[in-house]
């Protein structure tokens, strides 16, 4: 099957052809030709190079093989020279394989796809300030940019069903059709402290600015004009580039020992594509999704579920997907399985994602599972208040959706049937139900979304019909990450935190560092703050693992967690699932939250 096929294996940041050696041996045993490349300047010699030099390296490899079928495999940074080479020699390239990495767009500097958010921001600021002294500067990179490339994809982790929790950020849906998500969305400066913030400034502090070796920018010495990016200096720092799940101690040590500096030109110079290959090209693409790094086909399908036109390419005819259970380094963790997946991709195996049906409403816009009457509604900026009878003051429950939700999506979450249903249900039982439209449009927007929630909470507490000393916060799906700072330093007026099919730690591929969005750690400091946790039985393993970590940490800290189990339910169940079990779960969770506000 593999006879007549040549695999050009292109490594990622700080690595060389050595990372592919075990996979290359297995491909050769199957009858294929395997060409693991060490790109220019990546042999430890310190020679400078840029992305164009690396494109030339791949083109030379393609031109030197006589194989009938050439398959270009890109991992991490390696996707840039792979896609560009296919774009320039489309007649010689039978397929592109993106191994746990997104597909860049024309004009993207490779720095824009670095997974670790703090490092990516620092690199993009450095590019913006280079003033052309280091080659062609990346167009449109603002000095305060918080993410690059295109916006993060959207997805529901189970069957592309997006209910009231909204879409969940797709680590696996890769912005351009493969595995690792590119945190993105509009560039924005770090938010300032909003009025009525949740707690001490130390809780709300931004994470340290880090480089590849996990130290602050000033300490790293890597900001001189043209200076290369130092390699990670520990296995833990390598983990910031992607999950090391399944990688043994010897291979981890090899990464630390053999990692080399990344030439600046390979990060700063924009990729140039002519349209033959890429998201809109014609060269077939296989995206290998690595679940251990937070990438699944269900997440790709979820990226399509909300109908954002930016992600229509995910279901393009030339795109297909294969899945692995490994982390970001499958060639080190499971070389046999990696070689098998590459052979399957070369043979044309893989599945296209299911697109949402053109007829009928998407899952998140179907009716709420309980028939609840409308209540008077008052709109204050980004928050809608659904009001109970009487002047009050009444307790209040602030409902926080998941995401990312595309900027400009209509309707916005506060008008989705699920959140309307919850808010009306709460108002009918004597509490103000408040729904926040926060601005989590991409994986780089968590700081902004957290500030939006804090501002909304302050507005709700200041409302004349709200008892400011009796407030609960209810987080859904990826919105669960926004609960961390409230758990870490709960103010006295916060009577309860509710979490429904939540994500409680960032998935590895997201590159979200620092404590601000890690509820599974923050819950250790929750003290006497009660938690109501709704858990669905048909959750994605990646989300479910964070819930179990949260429960263990809460149990060890003596935090009161009331568990509401819905064994047959999927993520976002409140609109597609009108079963008795689902209705009972929503009723039970609502009563539990209101009981803590009594």
Topology:
Elements: E1 5-10, H1 21-29, E2 33-36, H2 51-64, E3 69-75, H3 79-88, E4 93-99, H4 117-128, E5 154-155, E6 168-169, H5 201-204, H6 217-220, H7 235-238, H8 249-258, H9 265-268, E7 285-290, H10 297-305, E8 319-324, H11 330-333, H12 335-346, E9 377-380, E10 383-386, E11 394-400, H13 417-428, E12 432-436, H14 446-462, E13 466-476, H15 484-488, E14 494-500, H16 519-522, E15 531-538, H17 541-557, E16 561-570, H18 580-597
Parallel strand pairs: 1-2, 1-3, 3-4, 4-7, 7-8, 11-12, 11-13, 13-14, 14-15, 15-16
Antiparallel strand pairs: 5-6, 9-10, 10-12
Helix pairs in contact: 1-12, 2-3
Concise description?
This protein has helices at 21-29, 51-64, 79-88, 117-128, 201-204, 217-220, 235-238, 249-258, 265-268, 297-305, 330-333, 335-346, 417-428, 446-462, 484-488, 519-522, 541-557, 580-597; strands at residues 5-10, 33-36, 69-75, 93-99, 154-155, 168-169, 285-290, 319-324, 377-380, 383-386, 394-400, 432-436, 466-476, 494-500, 531-538, 561-570. The protein is α/β, with parallel strands linked by helices.
């Amino acid at each position: 099957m593999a006879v007549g096929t040549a695999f050009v294996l292109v490594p990622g940041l700080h690595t060389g052809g050595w990372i592919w050696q075990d996979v290359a041996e297995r491909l050769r045993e199957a009858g294929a030709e395997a060409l693991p490349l060490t790109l220019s300047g990546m042999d430890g010699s310190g020679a400078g190079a840029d992305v164009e030099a690396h494109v030339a390296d791949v083109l030379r490899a393609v031109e030197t093989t006589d194989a009938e079928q050439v398959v270009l495999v890109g991992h991490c940074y390696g996707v840039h020279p792979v896609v560009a080479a296919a774009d320039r020699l489309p007649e010689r390239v039978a397929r592109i394989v993106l191994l746990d990495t997104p597909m860049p767009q024309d004009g993207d500097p490779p720095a824009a796809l670095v997974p670790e958010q703090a490092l990516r921001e620092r690199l993009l600021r450095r590019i913006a300030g280079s003033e052309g002294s280091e080659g062609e500067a990346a167009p449109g990179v603002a000095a305060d940019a918080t993410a690059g490339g295109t916006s993060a994809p959207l997805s529901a982790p189970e069957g592309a069903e997006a209910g009231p929790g909204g879409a969940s950020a797709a680590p696996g849906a890769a912005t351009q059709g493969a595995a690792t998500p590119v945190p993105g969305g509009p560039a924005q400066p770090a938010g300032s402290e909003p009025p009525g913030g949740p707690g001490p400034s130390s809780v709300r502090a931004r994470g340290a600015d880090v480089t590849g070796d996990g130290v602050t920018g000033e300490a790293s010495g890597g900001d001189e004009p043209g200076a290369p990016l130092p390699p990670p200096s520990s296995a833990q720092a390598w983990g910031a580039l992607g999950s090391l799940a399944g990688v043994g101690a010897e291979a981890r040590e090899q990464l630390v020992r053999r990692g080399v500096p990344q030439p600046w030109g390979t990060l700063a110079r924009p990729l140039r594509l002519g349209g033959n290959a890429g998201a809109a090209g014609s060269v077939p693409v296989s995206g290998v999704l690595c679940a251990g790094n937070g990438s699944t086909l269900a997440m790709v399908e979820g990226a399509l579920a909300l109908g954002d036109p930016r992600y229509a390419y995910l279901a393009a005819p030339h795109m297909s997907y294969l899945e692995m259970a490994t982390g970001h380094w499958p060639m080190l963790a499971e070389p046999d399985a990696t070689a098998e997946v590459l052979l399957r991709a070369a043979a044309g195996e893989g599945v296209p994602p299911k697109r949402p049906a053109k007829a009928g409403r998407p899952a998140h816009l179907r009716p709420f599972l309980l028939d609840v009457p409308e209540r008077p509604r008052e709109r204050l900026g980004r928050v809608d208040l659904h009001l109970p009878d009487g002047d009050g003051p009444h307790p209040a429950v602030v409902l926080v959706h998941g995401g990312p939700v595309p900027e400009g999506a209509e309707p916005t979450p506060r008008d989705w049937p699920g959140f309307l249903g919850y808010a009306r249900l709460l108002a009918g039982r004597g509490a103000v139900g408040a729904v926040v439209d926060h601005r989590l449009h991409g994986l780089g927007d968590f700081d902004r979304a957290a500030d939006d929630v804090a501002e909304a909470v302050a507005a709700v507490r200041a409302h004349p019909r709200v008892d400011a000393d009796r407030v609960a916060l209810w987080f859904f799906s990826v919105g669960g990450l926004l609960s961390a700072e409230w758990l870490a330093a709960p103010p006295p007026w916060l009577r309860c935190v509710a979490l429904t099919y939540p994500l409680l730690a960032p998935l590895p591929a997201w590159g979200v560092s620092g404590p601000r969005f890690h509820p599974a750690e923050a819950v250790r400091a929750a003290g006497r703050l009660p938690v109501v946790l709704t858990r669905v039985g048909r959750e994605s393993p990646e989300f479910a693992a964070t819930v179990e970590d949260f429960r263990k940490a809460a149990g060890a800290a003596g935090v009161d967690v009331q568990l509401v189990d819905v064994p047959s339910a999927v993520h976002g169940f409140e609109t597609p699932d009108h079963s008795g079990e689902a209705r009972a779960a929503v009723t039970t969770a609502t009563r539990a939250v209101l009981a803590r506000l009594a």
